[in-house]
Amino acid sequence: MLRRPGRSVVLIDEIDKADIDFPNDLLRELEEKTFIIEELDESQLTKEDRRQGFRRTYRAQEPPIVVITSNDEKELPDAFLRRCVFHYIEFPSRQRLVEIVRVNTKGLDLDERLVELAVDRFRELSGLEDFRKTPATSELIDWVKILHYWGVQSDDLAGRSDLTRLPDWRVLFKHQQDVTAVERHAPTEPETAP
Fold first, then answer.
1. Which residues pair with 134 in a beta bridge?
2. How far apart are CA 144 and CA 118, in angstroms?
3. Which of 7, 16, 119, 127 is the most exposed place for a label (fewest CB within 10 A)?
4. Whole-angstrom Cα distance, residue 69 to residue 56?
5. Are strands 9-12 and 34-36 parallel, antiparallel or unpaired?
6. What does the alpha-carbon distance between residue 2 and residue 64 come to, in Å, rounded to a whole number?
7. What is the pTM of this model?
8. Domain boundary among 19, 49, 81
9. Of the residues 23, 49, 81, the one at which a domain ends
């Protein structure tokens, strides 16, 4: 926390979605070790707030540790990138995806086979090409929840070569052009029910 003595940690999520000037503005803030909370109106602070250390402008006693995430949707300035240490996070493995879904669906009494088959089908769909936005882990979790709420059985996900015949698969995509990309991969022969 900025009000506490010692080193702080600042998380800036998805910096590539911020205004174009934000990375350069952030460099100035970090260099000066001063942070201004624009939303805070000094006149609204009570004496107790001030006693506890609340204020609009904070000067860090030590440089903060800054963790920044980016989805690489927009180029960041070279001057900003030179000051960064990069750590790339690989997309989760199949087993890790299963674990992530389980953790994020606790209390739903999910069929384990349904989760594993949903992860397998998700990986097949994600492996197709020409997406504007490839489905992410959050879409997988939402899809599994929808499958559960609609009472989809694990057999409904098994043995499907035509991915467009999977139940509610469209919820994995945010853009119509991605739905169309999946539909282009559908076999020309209709799939018969098992």
1. none
2. 7
3. 127
4. 25
5. unpaired
6. 9
7. 0.68
8. 81
9. 81
Q: Where would I find the beta strands (DSSP E) of 39-128?
A: 57-59, 65-68
> What's the CA gap between 115 and 157, in Å, rounded?
10
| Tokens at 158, concatenated | 């098994």
DSSP-derived 3-state class of residue 97? helix
Q: Which one, of 131, 135, 155, lies nearest residue 143 by Cα? A: 135
pLDDT digit string (tens) for 75-110?
888 888 888 898 988 999 999 999 999 999 998 888
Q: Are residues 75 and 133 in the same domain?
A: no
CA angle 46, 52, 57 (to 5 degrees): 80
Counting every residue written for the chain, the total comes to 194
Rounded Cα gap, residues 86 and 16, in angstroms: 14
User: Could you tell me where the beta strands, DSSP code E, fall in the chain?
Assistant: 9-12, 34-36, 57-59, 65-68
Give residue-wise pLDDT tens across range 35-62.
766 666 667 777 877 676 666 666 667 7
